[in-house]
Amino acid sequence: MQETILEVNGLNAFYGRAHILFDVDLKVRKGEVVALMGRNGAGKSTTMKAIMGMLSRTQGEVSFMGNAIAKSPPHVISKMGMGFVPEDRRVFTDLTVLENLEVGSQAEREGAPYWTAEKLFELFPNLGEMPHRPGGNMSGGEQQMLTVSRTLMGNPYLVLLDEPSEGVAPVIVEQMANMIMALKKQGLTILLSEQNLQFADLVCDRAYVLENGHVRFEGTMEELDANEDVRRNYLSV
Ligand SMILES: Nc1ncnc2c1ncn2[C@@H]1O[C@H](COP(=O)(O)OP(=O)(O)OP(=O)(O)O)[C@@H](O)[C@H]1O
């Protein structure tokens, strides 16, 4: 069995007094694409932010490549090789595509795919056609691709990808799915938050389903597809 890249045990998270995550356990192994699923408000983004060290109040254990990171701040976790593409996909609007990529650049990491702007332009030909365009003059889908690319420029071992298919045109959704499959082939490990079961079925190996901050299901995509109760009760399908 492949080595475990990320292991979360008994993760609880709070916004002020509101208790949002309840004893979340999850594991991501090297080379896997794992889906974090659930309806709006289930706790997917909160789980990612908590893993990334972005929340002020959490309890539980998070281990990344064998290192305990639950008390580490986001910039330290990023430097260790964890990339995060948040839902709001902010690009630097005054910087060009190439400049945006340079901002994300980190040193090569042994055992992680190595990315250059040229390699990313092969993966996202749209971006390759506009290297000098300011980020502010791009469509939402193009900005989405740029945010993913900027994160990859950090040569991460693991990428947390928050709802890549949400709010973008169907043609971009298709490109996103192709992109994730291409990244998997390169050996990248991905934890992907997603509401859309069709999309997750296309690109993911396993899924965790959240409801009200609790993990309600854990299994392969085949097991999830076959589990009508989970799909009906906790997903919008
Ligand atoms: N900054 C915040 N302050 C207070 N409560 C928050 C905050 N952000 C999220 N919440 C609440 O935490 C719960 C989980 O939200 P979260 O964004 O993690 O869900 P999600 O599964 O990612 O859903 P979505 O698809 O809508 O992003 C929701 O009840 C939400 O209202």
UniProtKB/TrEMBL annotation:
Matching Gene3D superfamilies: P-loop containing nucleotide triphosphate hydrolases
PROSITE patterns per the UniProt record, alphabetical: ABC_TRANSPORTER_1, ABC_TRANSPORTER_2
Keywords from the named record: Amino-acid transport, ATP-binding, Nucleotide-binding, Transport
PANTHER family the record matches: ABC TRANSPORTER ATP-BINDING PROTEIN, HIGH-AFFINITY BRANCHED-CHAIN AMINO ACID TRANSPORT ATP-BINDING PROTEIN LIVF
ABC transporter domain: residues covered: 6-237
Family designation: Belongs to the ABC transporter superfamily.
Source organism of this protein record: Marinomonas ushuaiensis DSM 15871
Entries under SUPFAM superfamilies matching the protein: P-loop containing nucleoside triphosphate hydrolases (SSF52540)
Molecular function GO terms recorded: ATP binding; ATP hydrolysis activity; branched-chain amino acid transmembrane transporter activity
Domain of life: Bacteria
CDD domains from the UniProt entry: ABC_TM1139_LivF_branched
Protein name (database record): ABC transporter
Gene Ontology BP, a term: L-amino acid transport
